[in-house]
Write a structure and sequence with these properties.
7-stranded parallel beta sheet, 279 residues, 10 helices, TIM Barrel, alpha/beta
């Protein structure tokens, strides 16, 4: 397993987590085709020594959180479950920000019930709602924290200026943004996390979306994977681990086989020359 990382000064976990988005059904909508298989997958996560699971109330919606509790409660000592609120799913293809304080309170309390927790270790504001001032949204999350319902607060899909605003409202311990070898648009946010001791949690580590700007870096990493005889998903996760000690990768899958493949990335190492070639 990878080295450890500490979240918020008091939560130390292995520096390779699990993203539980894909335990829900196709399109991250509804129940998975094989719910018992999804529960087996989640139990295997723990068996592999992974002790950080990231989810959100919008995954399913509600399905991922419910399956985590069904599979793992009562939770093993040391397991950290991070969830998110602030996006609603009115239809399978829709992801709509909702940062109203009343919604965030309702969402947090519902996540507590589904996860069978008295306090959420890391509660992340999933996305800024352009209709609601950031100060109002995070102000409500800060109130939930002061009530003891949230241990630590994180943010997701924030740029560097938004992160600075957020940190004036509440203590932020983590940022979860899109980041991979060919999309490094959050480099400034990552640098701020490195400087100030925040944890950076990258999502979409394998994306080939058109907005991914550096095709050359991806191609170099693909060549490295071929030379080492490993899958690209392993290489992409290993690159994130090597990129910065502030990064906590959370590769996700619906397959036990792919889970083992992802976990094996923690043992891969790059030479300085190899990292320089990838950029």
């Amino acid at each position: 397993m990878a080295k450890t990382i500490t979240i918020g000064g008091d939560l130390t976990v292995n520096r390779l987590g699990f993203g539980a988005m894909r335990v829900a059904g196709p399109g991250i909508w509804g129940d998975p085709p094989d719910p018992s298989g999804a529960r087996r997958l989640l139990r295997r996560v723990i068996e592999l020594g992974i002790d950080f699971i990231d989810t959100a109330d919008s995954y399913g919606p509600e399905v991922s959180e419910r399956l985590i509790a069904e599979a793992l409660y009562p939770y093993p000592e040391g397991l950290v479950i991070a969830t998110k609120g602030g996006i609603v799913r009115p239809a399978a293809e829709k992801w709509v920000p909702d940062g109203r304080p009343a919604h965030l309170r309702e969402a947090c309390l519902a996540s507590l019930r589904r996860l069978r927790l008295e306090r959420i270790d890391l509660y992340q504001f999933h996305a800024i709602d352009p209709r609601v001032p950031l100060e109002e949204s995070l102000g409500e999350i800060a109130r939930l924290q002061s009530e003891g319902r949230i241990r630590h607060v994180g943010v997701s899909n924030f740029d560097i200026d938004e992160l600075a605003r957020a940190r004036r409202i509440v203590e932020v311990v983590s940022v979860q943004n899109r980041y991979n070898v060919s999309d490094r648009s959050s480099d400034a946010v990552l640098a701020a996390c490195e400087r100030d001791g925040l944890v950076f949690i990258p999502w979409s580590p394998l994306s080939k979306a058109p907005r991914d700007g550096d095709a050359g870096a991806r191609a170099a990493l693909e060549r490295w994977a071929v030379r080492r005889g490993v899958s690209f998903s392993q290489a992409a996760t290993a690159w994130l681990l090597a990129r910065s000690e502030a990064i906590l990768p959370i590769p996700g899958t619906s397959s036990v086989e792919h889970l083992a493949d992802n976990a094996a990335a923690a043992s891969l190492r790059f030479t300085p020359k190899e990292l320089s070639e990838i950029g």
